[in-house]
Input
Amino acid sequence: MQYVVNLASVTATPLLVVRRRAKLPELSKVVPNACGAVWDFIRRSQITSHGRNVAVYLNNSIDMEVGVEVDGNAAAGGEVTLSATPAGTVATTAHLGLYTRLPEAHEAVRQWCSTHKHQLAGPNWEVYDHWSDNPEKVRTDVYYLLTPDGTPAG
Output
């Protein structure tokens, strides 16, 4: 797949999340299970204002927050906490297709940043669009936070 990478300015999106740590090969199991834990909490708590699933990768270890977009007034409880996606300038691309090919989207963004001399500032995250039974219509938006205002590294 050919990826188009863009610079964008994003605001923080409130999330209900659980924190997890996983190795790269474990992500395909850990992320859906963590989303399930948050969705169980949302259903039990009767939270009606919710959106897409999100995974925020905090570092290379892979410490992460996995959860669901919510109204900023949502109440947390137990292992489910209120958090938010990072705000600022990002490099972003859209991946269409199976999750197993998501590493290609991440590599495209990192390569684009290197080529255009934009410095990564830490976290990156994925926003998973609502599920489709047609794998070609499964969309995941990939974001990488950049140094302030996205200026090229010196």
